[in-house]
Design a protein that fits this description.
Largest sheet of chain A: 7 strands, mixed
Mean pLDDT of chain B: 93
Shape of chain A: elongated
Number of domains of chain B: 2
CATH architecture of the largest domain in chain A: Beta Barrel
Helix content of chain B: 10-25%
Order of helices and strands of chain A: EEHEEHEHHEEEEEEEE
Number of strands of chain B: 21
Strand order of the largest sheet of chain A: 7-6-13-5-12-9-10
Order of helices and strands of chain B: EEHEEEEEEEEEEHEHEEEEEEEHEH
CATH superfamily of the largest domain in chain A: Cyclophilin-like
Strand content of chain A: 25-35%
Oligomer: heterodimer
């Protein structure tokens, strides 16, 4: 049964509303509600696009085709009247070379957690992660499910070029870089799996609700 | 076919962008000054969404290898077509072998060049806009280089002798406004109330400068630091062009066409859609002022802008009809 919390709704410009259901920390059930509301909201008059974030949802609309005040009420009732959607997503197994030159933060990460490098790697590879949302850059997955013992706050200053394929963690979140770009997350390994190919029929590999398992292809402490 | 003779890497192929893929992390992108590109296309009888060039670095020169027509809109810059002076917001013919030259603007920042028929490039996810960050769209996902050759779609564009153009009142008013601050209308955003009273006063009370850190992803501003009443951590959420984020430094960043689709910094306000072209035309070093408006004002401004485009499109259809015999 859906927990009928009402989201905080704010105006994000003349053609967007942000619905925020986040409590103290990220919640998987709230995220399933976000996915369901995103699908339902796309069918409303005047809605152009919905963008699931982490326990929140951005709804883009044409302000000349619908009334913002009316849409706000419609979204409120969708949020309280929609059941969270459990997604039977695809399972992806992603082989990772941990540590070494392409996983330069492994030692620091282990030290931060008070564990050995072997222990952090085996815990990272033991969990099953859920793709909560895709965003920021093309195909970038925000992954939930990181072992709380492995959490590590983001770097105070981001690196300008974190390479494509970098397996990264930031706070309680895990991720994989779909392209070389700036990031403040820590680099713990590398994968050859391509998450984004603009020329492909389906340019983005992962979808919200998909599950990820990391497999230890190699490790260099 | 046209050939690029002189350019900077920040000059790109753009159209009206790539909507529909935000939930996959793909920005809308497209022309920073959408209205200018749409009007350039309409002057030639193209669809408003045809692909053209966005010029942000000058001088820019290209050579036509066929007889064709082009339209230049946006910034107020000296333009010459085959040695003939041409005003901005004007469509004119160019003959094979002639050169188009755009010099540094007297006012404004970005120029748009549309070509009769539009640039013939393969769409990627429904758009020909260059996404430099993602490395796709436009010309292989990169900016223009000297020697690039671009094909044009076949068309039956016929301009009156001497060409044709438009004069837009608000563009004239802003064009000579370089001495004073550009005014941008904003709507308060989710974390507006979380800032200190002093930050509220400063946000709309002081003038902000556009720093060198300004590109298609966003403009970093400098001015009085805007502080939160208490520190806050936000989960990542979708953002739109125009979002004014405030990182811990307190110096705001306005997110623009190629911005990341999600962000995590507190948002103090959003620049209204109808004013985004003003930012596109505001150069580095210029000053801005934010004015809070009610949402009705934002919607009305958008309605006015869209009606004008519709009127121009309708006028072009009528004149195109007249030109066609039978």
């Amino acid at each position: 049964m859906a927990v009928a919390r009402s989201p905080r709704i704010s105006v994000a410009g003349s053609g967007a509303l942000l619905l925020d259901g986040a409590e103290v920390s990220f919640d998987d059930a709230t995220q399933e509600l976000v996915w369901a509301v995103a699908d339902a909201a796309r069918k409303l008059d005047g809605v152009r696009e919905t963008v699931p974030g982490m326990n929140n949802l951005l709804v883009l609309f044409d302000p000349l085709a619908t009334d913002a005040a009316r849409l706000r009420e419609q979204l409120k009732s969708l949020w309280s009247g929609t059941y969270p959607r459990t997604v039977a997503g695809a399972l992806h197994t992603i082989a990772v070379d941990y540590g070494g030159a392409r996983g330069e933060d492994l030692a620091g990460w282990a030290a931060h957690c008070g564990l050995s490098p072997e222990e952090v790697v085996s815990r990272h590879a033991a969990a099953t992660y859920t793709v909560a949302a895709i965003g920021a850059m093309p195909g970038f997955p925000y992954l939930s499910g990181l072992d709380p013992r492995l959490a590590w706050a983001r770097r105070s200053s981001p690196r300008l070029n974190v390479p494509e394929g970098a397996v990264i963690i930031g706070g309680m979140q895990a991720g994989i870089m779909p392209m070389t770009a700036p990031s403040g997350w820590h680099i713990i390994g590398h994968t050859d799996v391509r998450l984004f190919d603009a020329q492909a029929d389906t340019p983005v590999l992962l979808r919200p609700g998909d599950k990820i398992r990391f497999e230890i292809a190699g490790m260099e402490a | 076919m046209i050939e690029i003779l002189t350019t900077g890497l920040l000059n790109t192929v753009q159209d009206l962008g790539r909507p529909g893929y935000l939930a996959q992390g793909i920005s809308h992108g497209g022309a920073m000054d959408r209205q200018a590109l749409a009007i350039a296309n309409l002057l030639l009888g193209n669809e408003p969404s045809a692909a053209g060039l966005e010029i942000a670095l000058y001088p820019f020169r290209l050579k036509a290898h066929v007889d064709t027509s082009l339209a230049i809109t946006g910034a107020d810059c000296p333009i010459s077509v085959g040695g003939r002076r041409c005003p901005p917001w004007w469509a004119t013919g160019i003959r094979a072998g002639e050169t188009l030259i755009l010099e540094a603007p007297r006012a404004g920042a970005r120029s748009y060049i549309a070509f009769a028929g539009g640039l013939d490039l393969p769409p990627v996810m429904g758009s020909r806009a260059t996404d430099v960050k993602g490395g796709f769209g436009g010309l292989g996902g990169r900016g223009l280089s000297r020697g690039d050759r671009l094909r044009l779609n076949a068309t039956e564009c016929q301009l009156p002798p001497g060409g044709r153009g438009v004069a837009l009142e608000e563009r004239r008013a802003s064009g000579n406004g370089t001495a004073s601050a550009i005014e941008l209308r904003v709507l308060p955003a989710a974390e507006f109330a979380a800032f200190t009273p002093r930050a509220h006063a400063a946000f709309t009370g002081v003038e902000w400068s556009i720093t060198n850190d300004a590109n298609r992803m966003g403009y970093r501003l400098s001015g009085e630091a805007l502080l939160l009443a208490a520190p806050m951590e936000l989960l990542s959420h979708g953002i739109v062009p125009g979002t004014v984020q405030v990182p811990p430094s307190g110096q705001p960043i306005i997110q623009l066409a190629d911005a990341n689709t999600c962000g995590g910094y507190p948002k103090i306000a959003t620049v209204i859609e109808a004013d985004l072209w003003r930012l596109a035309q505001t150069p580095v070093g210029a000053r801005l002022r934010f004015v809070t408006v009610p949402i009705e004002t934002a919607t009305e401004a958008l309605r006015t802008a869209r009606q004008r485009l519709d009127a121009l499109a309708a006028a072009r259809k009528i004149s195109a009809g007249r030109l066609r015999p039978g």
